[in-house]
Design a protein that fits this description.
335 residues, single chain, 16 helices, flat, Hypothetical protein af1432, 2 domains, mainly alpha
């Protein structure tokens, strides 16, 4: 028995009856020769981690734009926290941890610079609309590796596309990603808001804190346990009703007091204006796009290429591009 067959046998023997078995994958658009060591979902994970778009997440906003402190979350650290929660849930529920991990690591690859502010701009400007989950799938299928794509498995792609929105993933592992994403951002965004002094601990709703816990660690533990106790042996990912209600109310509290807070979002209008100006500029001067985007221009049009280009930028690269285009350089005499 080779190593891959051993892993498949172990999955059949140890996974929940509702887990997705790796051997049942619908596969990739292009077949890869087995390396004899890694399962298909493990190979997906490695392809994601070694991609350019994954590395760019470290310089993309989570909530606070370009914070001066070193300890605020970025899109990358958010992704890692989602992955950790997803793995914990999948392991406890005897689901396919490798599938969950790969989907969690890739779920935000299509996110814009400046977080949801950038997403809002592109959704308004691009005639066909823009959603970061759809862009994440596009990055994986079309844009990575100089428009060759990462060639990931069907199940990972489905989980990424359906990690937000009304369409549910086809696997329980995909549903784990959906809830792990919420658990992660609700709790780390509270932590960052407290660090930024946007919130004080006493501002947090006392009735919700009593149910969920005083610290981020306690709240995550409560939410995760609330899922495990309700989902074990069930063909669904569900959370204990009182905990779910408290989590959703805490999320509503964050929208009012953090996500739409004037102090926390004081720089967003500048970021939106900057992206709007660059979008218009590159639509009119598409010949200045990086040459590899010519393929997108020819097949899907100028707007699509500009949207892809801006969505792929990091915060600091977009600022650098804006300054290079719109801010005059100081003239100095050559020596």
């Amino acid at each position: 028995m080779n190593f891959i067959d051993f892993i498949h046998k172990r999955e059949r023997e140890n996974f929940s009856e509702y887990a997705f078995l790796t051997e049942n994958t619908k596969g990739r658009d292009f077949i890869l020769k087995s390396d004899g060591m890694r399962t298909e979902f493990q190979r997906d994970r490695d392809r994601i981690i070694h991609s350019n778009s994954f590395r760019r997440l470290m310089h993309k906003t989570q909530v606070f734009l370009d914070p001066e402190g070193d300890h605020y979350r970025t899109r990358l650290t958010h992704t890692l926290e989602v992955t950790q929660i997803g793995r914990t849930l999948s392991r406890a529920l005897r689901l396919n941890e490798d599938l969950t991990e790969a989907a969690c690591l890739a779920h935000d690859l299509g996110h814009t610079p400046f977080g949801h502010a950038g997403e809002k701009v592109l959704n308004r400007l691009y005639s066909k609309g823009f959603k970061h989950n759809e862009q994440s799938l596009r990055v994986i299928e079309k844009l990575e590796k100089n428009f060759a794509g990462l060639n990931l498995t069907y199940e990972v792609r489905d989980a990424i596309l359906c990690h937000t929105g009304n369409v549910m993933p086809k696997t329980l592992e995909g549903k784990v990603l959906r809830i792990a994403d919420r658990i992660a951002y609700i709790n780390h965004d509270i932590d960052d808001a407290l660090r930024a002094k946007i919130l004080k601990f006493e501002d947090l709703p006392g009735d919700l804190i009593k149910i969920l816990g005083k610290t981020g660690s306690e709240r995550i533990n409560t939410m995760v346990n609330g899922i495990i106790t309700e989902s074990d042996g069930v063909n669904d990912i569900i959370m204990r009703e009182d905990i779910l209600e408290a989590m959703l109310k805490l999320r509503e509290f964050l929208f009012v007091n953090v996500y739409d807070n004037n102090t926390a979002k004081s720089e967003e209008k500048k970021a939106e204006f900057m992206l709007e100006q660059m979008y218009d500029y590159f639509v009119k001067n598409y010949n200045l796009l990086i040459p590899v985007y010519e393929k997108i221009i020819n097949s899907e049009g100028i707007e699509r290429a500009v949207c892809d280009y801006i969505a792929g930028m990091t915060d600091r690269y977009s600022i650098s591009q804006y300054c290079g285009i719109f801010v005059p350089k100081t003239w100095k005499e050559e020596e």
